[in-house]
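re: ur question from earlier - yeah i can do the single chain one, its not a big deal. heres the input i used so u can compare w yours
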Amino acid sequence: MNRPLILGWGHTAFGRHADESVESLVVAAGREALADAEVDPASIDLVVVGQFNSGMNPLGFSSSLALEIDEALFGTPAVRVENACASGSTAVHEALAHLGSGRADRVLVVGAEKMTGIPPATVGAALLGADYDAAGTTSETGFAGLFAEVALEYERRHGPVGDVLGRIGAKSHRLGAQNPFAHLRKDLGVEFCSTVSAQNPMVAAPLRRTDCSPVSDGAAALVLGREPTSSRHPGVAVAGWSSANDFLPNAKRDPLAFAATELAWHRALAEAGVGLADLDLVELHDCFTIAELNLYEVLGMAPRGAGHRVVDEGAALPGGSLPVNPSGGLKSKGHPVGATGVSQHVLASMQLTGTFPGVQIPNARRAAVHNMGGLAVANCVTVLEATE
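and the output i got, formated as tokens:
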């Protein structure tokens, strides 16, 4: 059986979009993806929508919003999936499962979230709903507080991380400044990102504002199928994919292990028949800079406790041994929850077809996407390969 292909894609700018709704974002990204793939909407066998919502928007039934993309989608099965911050990649994996089973030949996947213009307390409560212990509670620091605890545990075991996190944040801002889809498009520099100030306050020690991804609106979409369709660019092959969930109660997880992330990562690479050295770039889930630092170790870029070496050696920079988040990542690009995983697949596909409008990794042939929900509870990894 032919490997599944990403045929085409669409991506709105991420940011604050006061005049947009979940519906308008879904429609914009979906129409762009269908046009880019050059497929007839009537040929779509399934629509999968990734959206977290969790009370941020009153409409809790969004699957059929995708039919507003084109009336030819009437009668097409549509389903919404939710898997916290991994909702987008879970939607992609649901599409891959349908293709693999033979139940579908072409699937439209759309990830979207509308998070601004909503009371901050509502957004905070929605996000905390993804944590077993914090759900239903109030918190001034929200999910930043949960990842601050990860950072404090990292410091307890391995030493201070403030300067390293500042350098990771600066990398993200430098790359995001060149990504037209990104929410935060300003190169802030290492000194600013490493220093607490009125413009860069401490959010939840030791995490500063520049260590935290922003609340964003946005959508991304892609079309998956078996045969290439677009004259605009080659299809991108899905070489391997896997997901793995960890236990939800925090007491049953080591905060630094990211054990299910590691499991999904190795499963996906094994299915693709590749190793770390075979990858040309990774788009990973850097919701906070401490997540990126810890993931350097979880994914095998450095030994446990030595993630700083990746930063010291410039390994994650463009031109390094394995560029990480050339898009600017969630940290700079933004994190509209349901859109994030789909966005990662879209931007990695652009890299592999030489069409990314930001910092392009030269001659990129293979990329990995890592997307997680909660504190490394739901984990999705996909390995993508160029076909030409």
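The chain has eleven helices and eleven strands. not sure if urs matches, ping me
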